[in-house]
Amino acid sequence: NAGVMQNPRHLVRRRGQEARLRCSPMKGHSHVYWYRQLPEEGLKFMVYLQKENIIDESGMPKERFSAEFPKEGPSILRIQQVVRGDSAAYFCASSSITGDEAFFGQGTRLTVV
Amino acid sequence: AQSVSQHNHHVILSEAASLELGCNYSYGGTVNLFWYVQYPGQHLQLLLKYFSGDPLVKGIKGFEAEFIKSKFSFNLRKPSVQWSDTAEYFCAASPSSGNTGKLIFGQGTTLQVKP
């Protein structure tokens, strides 16, 4: 049973480009969470999604960031017009509808040059 | 405001030394508490969790943590560390009534164990 899969593992983007980060939850999991870890900081919650629904986006920056979890396919975290301050590790986690534990992916390290 | 704080940012120990990593939380209600570990190049893994009941929780790889409600603490302990315990450790909390995937994390503690 594959764990939470994130790709790419490393992503380099120039300022102003778009970054797309993908997350495939564990099999049978319908809840996805995105976190961001800035250098020297802990993980910060960004958004919580279920299939085709955003449940809680209280941690998402108001501009340039969006997330989706379509009926088919992985969850996508999209960052438009990236800036240097977006450089961070982005982690995805998933849980089942009744689960008491979130399982994390290996993260995507975004570098904006 | 809800928060989790870890007191030690970087800990260096020799093998066989005892480990205690501090974690304090600030929350409006009852909480679920977690310790995660991230080995170099790997994903976060759950070490142990506390929801209710016995405040002394035993996890994987010989780790344990004690929930002390009066101190708002959930410190992680291991009697004798190994070189393979070198990793980053994160304390996290979520509201008892809410979703366990929406976590508030501490800043993390980097543990380096010297052989």
Overall spatial form of chain A: globular
* Strand fraction of chain A: over 45%
**CA-CA gap between termini of chain A:** 36 Å
Please tell me what the overall shape of chain B is.
Answer: globular
* Multimeric state: heterodimer
Please state the CA-atom Rg of chain B, rounded to the nearest Å. 14 Å
Q: Give the SSE order of chain B as H and E letters.
A: EEEEEEEEEEEE
The assigned structural class of chain B equals mainly beta
Number of separate strands of chain A: 11
Radius of gyration of chain A: 13 Å
Order of helices and strands of chain A: EEEEEEEEEEE
| Mean pLDDT across all amino acids of chain B | 93
Into which percent range does the helicity of residues of chain B fall?
A: under 10%
Helical segment count of chain B? 0
In percent, how much strand structure appears in the residues of chain B? over 45%
Q: Give the number of DSSP strands of chain B.
A: 12
- For the largest interface in this structure, which chains are involved and how many residues does each contribute? A-B, 26 and 24 residues
Compile the SSE list and pairings.
The complex is a heterodimer of chains A (113) and B (115).
Chain A (H helix, E strand, L loop, with lengths): L4 E3 L2 E4 L5 E6 L6 E7 L5 E8 L2 E4 L8 E4 L6 E5 L8 E8 L7 E2 L3 E5 L1
Parallel strand pairs in A: 2-11
Antiparallel strand pairs in A: 1-3, 3-8, 4-5, 4-9, 5-6, 7-8, 9-10, 9-11
Chain B lengths: L2 E4 L3 E5 L4 E3 L1 E4 L4 E8 L5 E7 L5 E3 L5 E5 L4 E6 L8 E9 L8 E2 L3 E6 L1
Parallel strand pairs in B: 2-12
Antiparallel strand pairs in B: 1-4, 3-9, 5-6, 5-10, 7-8, 8-9, 10-11, 10-12
What does this structure look like?
- Chain A is mainly β.
- Chain A contains no helices and 11 strands.
- Chain A has strands spanning 5-7, 10-13, 19-24, 31-37, 43-50, 53-56, 65-68, 75-79, 88-95, 103-104, 108-112.
- In chain A, strands 2, 4, 5, 6, 9, 10 and 11 form a 7-stranded mixed β-sheet that branches.
- In chain A, a hairpin with a 6-residue loop joins strand 7 and strand 8 (75-79).
- The model of chain A has no long low-confidence stretch (mean pLDDT 93).
- By secondary structure, chain B is mainly beta.
- Chain B has no helices and 12 strands.
- In chain B, the strands form 3 sheets. In chain B, strands 2, 5, 6, 10, 11 and 12 form a 6-stranded mixed β-sheet that branches.
- The radius of gyration of chain B is 14 Å and the shape is globular.
- The A-B interface holds A 3-4, 31, 33, 35, 40-45, 48, 56, 91, 93-95, 99-107 and B 4, 6, 32, 36, 41-46, 49, 51, 90, 92, 99-108.
